[in-house]
């Protein structure tokens, strides 16, 4: 018997720059919000959805495959085809010589992505662990650091050897990488909330230049952020993205990083 959803569901999103096209309309009251909005980091959103504290959440794609009862709503995703700018490996040694990586605590899909890349590209069983959020502290305990989200913009590309993992993924496998998906528990119905989120996305995409300008007082930086939002990030979970997601989850399952690789979708908005 399916669980009856609460009258006012809880929706969890993170507030990284790449989710702002979804958050913009919600934070400006431009759509009805028949839900309580919760802001948290991606890894915590996954934990809270799994625990039942959230009803719908934008979570790392690997976390979908660690929940037996999760389904995906294709209304919104965060994906990339090639260079993404916000999933960055950095070190003071050549990438192929790296043996250990301290991972940003917000990172889960990217940590799995990293392990798959090193196994398939460099034939290495990489040692990874959760590190400090400060990039300069990560290298005290590991050969390299992995940072995601807005933090990656601040890494000094001149100081370190860096590798954009989205770029390496596409170069190695020729597929998009899906970083995050909207998930909920199978058997629950949240059509109104999902319709509202879909409307919010449509409004956000129409105002994406404004979103970039609101993030900074610098016109030059606003142009860079707009390029990131429009040229780096894919928000539609289309057929190519589904193929990339399936390849990622199949690879992760083979390596024991998740329990499932099937894609189940919400039947509705």
From TrEMBL:
Q: Does the keyword Calcium apply?
A: no
Q: Cross-referenced Pfam families, in alphabetical order? A: VitK2_biosynth
- Keywords from the named record: Lyase, Menaquinone biosynthesis
InterPro entries, sorted: Menaquinone_biosynth, MqnA
One of the record's GO molecular function terms: lyase activity
User: What processes in GO biological process is this protein linked to?
Assistant: menaquinone biosynthetic process
UniProt keyword Phosphoprotein, yes or no = no
PANTHER family documented for this protein? CHORISMATE DEHYDRATASE (PTHR37690)
Question: HAMAP family, per this entry?
Answer: MqnA
Q: What is this protein called?
A: Chorismate dehydratase
Q: What is the lineage of its organism?
A: unclassified sequences, metagenomes, ecological metagenomes
């Amino acid at each position: 018997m399916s669980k009856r959803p609460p009258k006012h569901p809880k929706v969890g999103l993170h507030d990284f720059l790449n989710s702002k096209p979804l958050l913009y309309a919600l934070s400006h009251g431009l759509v009805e919000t028949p839900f309580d909005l919760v802001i948290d980091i991606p890894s915590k959103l996954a934990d809270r959805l799994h625990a039942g504290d959230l009803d719908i959440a934008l979570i790392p794609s690997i976390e979908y495959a660690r929940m037996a009862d999760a389904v995906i709503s294709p209304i919104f995703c965060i994906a990339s085809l090639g260079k993404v700018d916000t999933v960055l490996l950095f070190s003071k040694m050549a990438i192929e010589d790296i043996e250990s990586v301290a991972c940003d605590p917000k990172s889960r899909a990217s940590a799995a992505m990293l392990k798959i890349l090193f196994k398939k590209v460099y034939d290495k069983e990489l040692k990874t662990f959760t590190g400090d959020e400060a990039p300069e502290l990560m290298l005290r305990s590991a050969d390299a650091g992995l940072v995601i989200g807005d933090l990656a913009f601040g890494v000094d590309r001149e100081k370190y050897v860096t590798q954009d993992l989205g770029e390496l993924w596409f170069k190695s496998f020729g597929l998009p990488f899906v970083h995050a998906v909207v998930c909920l528990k199978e058997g629950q119905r949240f059509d109104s909330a999902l319709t509202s989120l879909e409307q919010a996305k449509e409004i956000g995409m129409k105002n994406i230049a404004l979103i970039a300008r609101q993030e900074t007082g610098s016109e030059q930086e606003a142009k860079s952020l707009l390029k990131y939002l429009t040229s780096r990030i894919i928000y539609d979970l289309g057929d190519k993205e589904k193929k990339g997601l399936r390849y990622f989850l199949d690879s992760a399952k083979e390596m024991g990083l998740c329990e499932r690789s099937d894609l189940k979708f919400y039947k509705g908005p």
